[in-house]
Each structure stands twice: as structure tokens, then as C-alpha cells.
Design a protein that fits this description.
about 325 residues; disordered N terminus; DUF3829; DUF3829 domain-containing protein
Length: about 325
Amino acid sequence: MTTIRRTWGYGMGHFYRALAATFSVLALVGLAGCNGESDEQTSKKAAVESSSASSQTELAKSNAYITAANESSGMFARALASYQDVIAPKLSSNRPLETYTVVPVQQLTKVRTRLDAAGAMEGSIPELDPAARDYAAAIAAFEPVNNGLSNYAQSKGFLTDGGAKARAEDQAYVEALTKVVDAEKVFFEKIEARDERLMREAYEKAPEGSAARYRAGIVLRSKAAMKKVVTVFSEPDDIATRKAFADDLNDMADLVEKWDRAVRAEKPDGCPALQNSFNSVIADGRKAIQSAEKGRFSPASGTPSSVIQSEFSILQQNFSMMILRLNQPFFC
């Protein structure tokens, strides 16, 4: 998309990438439901899983981390982008401020509290623990700076001093928030990498031709597609990525058909709600491809950025709903 003026991290591109960060809680447990297997088979699997206390401990801690990640969901990246786009130009103009905002204190505290609570849980996850600690530490260092300016913003202190305090603390605020954004990005990447590894293991362990295997395959292809979706929206001239995105959606559609047949072989009614979620993501993705091909995402098109953001958000919301339903073992 053409309104992106900054590289990864700061600007509209980060808005899209932040929204694309949605993680699947209980991903492996979710594979047990609506997969065409009998109750007896599912029970046997559940018994095997429950016999491993360490696995359950790790699962609980992992889910706590993922909840913290979804709680922030790119909030800090959006806050920094907004600050640089809206507030920074006003501060540099040396004119009296009329508006001023910082990160909401309650949301900031909530994310850090969730991270601290998850880190204190029993067990260890080497893939996630260090990144989570760094993320929580970055937030803790940012809180005093943000909290002081929050009082200033809420009480409209900038109307009495013309923005002097905001200008004096601008550098400290941006530096501290940037560290939070960087730590958040690393934390998200670690979760995503682990999530993909576990899902790929589930795919490889599932019997060939089973609904469970197709289901895991759908998740893997959808996640591969979502890694490209930002480029589809923000870089309309990148035809190669758009084609790769289309290939992922086509693979996903093929797997959905195979999954549906496998499910209905055991359960004639199938799982229409989950099937609809799968197809909504595919349909939204194909619509985005069509829009990009017609030039709607090009700067010359004149398409309002709010319209493109809305289209992206709908795709992301449907992807999130798909993940949510997958996380409910007995959804159907």
C-alpha cells in the first residue's frame, strides 16, 4: 500500500503487521476436536497427553504467554507509529500543543502483569522465557516515563505550559517506547516460530489422509499466507509475493475440501461452522488479490487508506476467528 512511508516497525506497515500477530492458544489440543476421529480414539489421545505432567505444565505456561501476546496485539507498535505521525510533528513545530496522548496506563500495566505472571509459572520454555523477560523488562522501564506523561496528557497540562514538558521528555519517551516495540517484535517472532514448529510436528504425526492431518495442514498454509498478506496490501507492485499468497490460498482450499470429506466420512453433518471460517479467510484473501491486481492498493488509485485498512482488518478478524474456533476442541 502506498501510504507506507517508513520501513518495518514504524508507520502504516507496522499497523498491518501488528494486526497480523494472532497466535493460536491450545493449538495441539485443538486438533483433537471435529477431526473425524471416534470418541474412543480422542479419549486415548487425551489419556496419553494427560499422563505427561511436564507437557501440561509447558502448555499452560505457553498459553499464558500467548494470552499476553494477544493482549498487546501490536499495541505498542501502533502507539509509536501514531506518536511519530501525529504528535512528533506538533512537538517539532514549537507551537502550543492542543492535543497530546500517550499509551493508556491500564493497558500497559495489564500486559506487563500478564507477562510477569506467565514467567512465574512452573516449568520453563527456553524458546520463550528469555524473550518474555526482556519484553516485560522493557515495559517496566517504559512505565515511569509513560505514567508521568499520562497524568500530563489526561489533565491537559500541555494547555498550561504549551507543551514544554512533552518536548522535554520526548526523546526519553520515544527511546523507551522503541525498546518496548523491539522487544515485543522479538517476543512475537519467538511465539510464532514455536507455534509453527509444534503445528508442523502435529501434521507430521497425524495419519496420512486423516482429517487431523488435513486440519493441521490448513493451519500451516493459512499461517504461511498471513505472513505474506502485509506485502499484498502494502506493496502492490510485488507480483511474486502476491502469486505466492494466491498459491497458499489455493493449497488451503484444496486441504479444506479434503478435510471436509474426511470429517463427513465419520460425521455426516460435517463441521460447517469451522468450514465457513476456513473459507472466509480464503475468500477474503482472494478478494485482496483481486483488489491488488486492479490497482486499488496503488497510490494512484486514490483509494482512502481507511478503506484499505478496513479490508485488511476484516481479513485479519476472520483469520482470528478461525484460530479461535480451532482452539475449541469440541466446537462442532
